[in-house]
Every structure is written in C-alpha cells, then in structure tokens.
Amino acid sequence: MPEGWEPVIGLEVHAQLRTDSKLFSSAANSFGADPNTQTTEVDLGMPGVLPVINRRAVELALRAALALGCEIQPLSTFARKHYFYPDLPKGYQISQYDEPYASGGKVPIQANGELRTIRLTRIHMEEDAGKLIHDDAITGGGVSHVDLNRAGVPLVEIVSEPEIRSAEEAGAYLRSLRSILRYLDVSDADMEKGHFRCDANISVRRKGADALGTKVELKNLNSFKFVEHAISYEIKRQIDVLEDGGALVQETRLWDDKAGETRPMRIKESAHDYRYFPDPDLAPLRIDPEWIKEVQATLPELPLEKRQRYEQELGLPDYDAQVLIEDRDVAEFFEETVRLYPHPKTVSNWVMRSLLGFISESGQELRQLPLTPSHLAALLELLEQGKVTAASAREIFQEMAGSGLQPADIMRERGLEAVSDSGEIEALLREVLEANPSQLEKYRGGDQKLFNFFVGQVMRRTQGKANPKVVRDLLSQLLR
C-alpha cells in the first residue's frame, strides 16, 4: 500500500439461520432441493397472505447476539424494504431498519500477532431473497431462471463498525465470526452454499484525517480468498484514482476473480431509495427478559475462551490451540481423546496432521467419518506400548479413519505389529554392520551421523515394523 494512506473497512455479513422452516412461512429451509419446491403462498408473494414469525429463528438470532456481547432490545420492529428484482416476488424484503433487535457487541480477531476486537454496530433479522440462475446455453442470447427456494430463509445481518484496516484483518474477522456462529449451532455458515455472505464497505483517506472518504460497496463475496483479494484490489484502485487527481463515486461493485478486479454494478442506494416503512402485517417483536436469561444459560464455551484454556491448562502452543479451535467438532474430538489418553501435545499432533489431513484429502467432514476419539486413543496406546511403530501407526490411522475398524484389529490383520524380539533385531543389526564395513569404519572414526544410517537399514529390512527404541538400544551396545 502506498505510504500516507489509510483504508477504512466495514463488513456486513449475512448468515442464514439453521432452522427447519423459513422466517415467516412453513416452507422447508434446506439446501439442494429442486428449484421452487420449497415455497408457500407467503414466499411467492400471493395477495391476502400473512407472515407469521418463526420462534426458533428468533431464538437462534438471540443466541448469536448474546454470544457477541450485544445489547438486546426488548422491543424491535420489522419494516418493508422495497426494491424490484425477479427473485423478490413481493417487491419488498421484510427486514429490520431503525429498531433492530440487537445493538453493539464485538468480534475478537487475531491479526498481525495481536488479539483485538472489532466492534459491532448492530445485528438485525431479515428474510433472504430468491436466486437468479443465468443460463446462456438455452437460447444463445441468455436466459435467467428464478429459484425461490431461498426466498424467506431467515438471516441475521451482522454489521461491523468501520474499524478494519486491511484485507488481512477482514479475513481474520470473518473467520472468527464464522467460527463463533458454528460453535453456537446458529448457522452452518457454509460460504460455498451461500449460508455466509459478505458485503464490504471500503474507503480510503490520508493518514491522520478524521473525515471518511467516498465509500464503495463490494457485494456478495462468498469466500475468504475472494474477500481478501477484492479488498486489496479495491484499496489500491481507490488510492490510484485519488493520486491521479480523479474522484471516486459512491457505488456498488462486484469482484471478478478471473480478471482479478472489481467492476461497477450499480450506483449505491441510500436508505431513502428503499422507502422503508413499518410492516403493517407484523406486530412489534417483544423479547421476554426471562427468555434472554434462559438462552444465555445455554451458550457454549466460545473459540477464544477455549483457545485460552488449551494454552493455560493443557500447555499447548499458540499455533496448536488456534488450529484446534477453528472447528467445534474437531475441538470436541480433541478434548474427548485427551480425556481417554491424557497427553495433550501428542493428541494435538495426531489431530492436526493425521486427522485434519485425512479430512482434507477425503473431502468429508469429521462428523461423516466412522472415526471416534476412542479409536485414536487406542492407537496412541499401542504406539506408546511399542506394539506398533510410528510409520505403522500412520498406516493404521488411514485405514481406521475410513473403515471405523479398531486399531488392534487392523494391526493384526495387516501384520503391522512391531518387531520387538531382541534376538531377531540383533541378528538384523549384525547383518547390516557386516554389509556396510566402510560406513562402520567411518562411524568408528567419529562420524556419529552414521548411527541413524544403521537404524534406517534395519527399519527398511523390517518394512518399518522394528521397534525403534529396541533397535537403537541394541545398536548402541553392539557399537560399544
């Protein structure tokens, strides 16, 4: 970034709530159904229908706000936000405007080696719009289809204060927020499925200036990579325009990842363009203080608290703790394994390398695997007892994670039990020493690194099954 400039970034995140039905209708809320099969008259904007609010959606929205430290408003209202697109049959979206259900709050982030917080302006509830699917292959001239399955799906919009100062901080904020929502079971927050979408408001100003620059909105960024790349590009673009003597326009732009640039979409609307007014079909939302207390009591340990506990109580390095807490399922798997096999650092190593590696390679989520903490604990017991080598243990893990078989059964069936018989290993060592007289002479001349060469030869001859400790102890005795 050119010196003398400062970016000012605020993020608006739309997160779909994890409900069975939509915000104001009984239609199902699930991903992947055939187009227009999850709708009712309410979602289609038919005349004469009335919306009825989903209590479960309010409860999940309340969980999110309480976990983020927001102030819950005892009375909030819904408004009609008017705009005209084919994926919005009513011609308006039901949202909250000047009286949201939650205000304030904060999101912790780890950026540039520091832990700090980004304050929130508000959280409000609203319904999602449908989806336009553009297909140029049908007529050659371009056709757009409308899928209204998503219309009416409950959302929370989480609005940050303009306190983010770089693309990296924006990525850290989004990762932290998504992790919190997943811990709460408020949202699946799957960016690929559109459950977690981000609009970024970006301006630049001279360092030390108080006034904000002209704001540009980047719309519907649905991956961390896109967010960071788009913000970095937009910051540079704005600075280049201003340094060349040009003027910026308040507008909405889209990110073109193939071209690696942002492109104009439309002139940015203001609040008055939407002609907000209170929805006459919905009574004000009153949230009972006792209900707030009940929901507060059900909140789980959040990622930051869990991370601090891992470091302070379990003695894990900062890096390990950060990796383990990113996914709640992984953190719970780790903790249960440590309960069964109380060696946190050893368990951490296996979870980070073998478990997360298997998840990445298989494309599955942890909850889809037949693997349990007791499987991993049993494998680590075999390794500690010297019944398998580290190489064999890794091989057993791969099979165990895919099949759900017990590690001891895999060990026996595949002949992976460690060779610990001292007589057999000593005989192999003597063969290795006799077969490598020049290396033996160099070792006796002071080249101590050749010790590992002899160990490696035995491990190779036993296909990695020899107990390394037994090999090293016997080799030391023979060389003396």
Descriptive notes:
With 480 residues, this protein is of the alpha+beta class. It folds into 3 domains: 287 residues, no CATH class; 113 residues, no CATH class; 58 residues, Orthogonal Bundle (Arc Repressor Mutant, subunit A), CATH 1.10.10. It has 15 helices and 17 strands. The strands form 4 sheets. Strands 1, 2, 6, 7, 8, 11, 12, 13, 14 and 15 form a 10-stranded mixed sheet that branches. The model has no long low-confidence stretch (mean pLDDT 90).
What's the mean pLDDT score? 90
Instruction: Give the strand content.
Output: 15-25%
The tally of structural domains comes to 3
Relative helix content:
25-40%
Q: The biggest beta sheet, please?
A: 10 strands, mixed
In short, what is this structure?
By secondary structure, the protein is an alpha+beta fold.
Keywords:
3 domains, 480 residues, three-stranded antiparallel β-sheet, elongated, 15 helices, ten-stranded mixed β-sheet, Arc Repressor Mutant, subunit A, single chain, alpha+beta
Structural topology:
Layout (H helix, E strand, L loop, with lengths): L4 E12 L38 H13 L3 E2 L2 E2 L2 E4 L9 E4 L6 E2 L2 E6 L2 E14 L3 E5 L7 E5 L6 E7 L6 H17 L12 E11 L9 E6 L2 H20 L7 E6 L4 E7 L9 E2 L6 E2 L2 H9 L5 H10 L5 H8 L2 H13 L3 H19 L10 H12 L5 H14 L3 H7 L8 H14 L1 H8 L5 H12 L6 H12 L1
Parallel strand pairs: 13-14
Antiparallel strand pairs: 1-11, 1-12, 2-6, 3-17, 4-5, 4-16, 6-8, 7-8, 8-11, 9-10, 12-13, 14-15
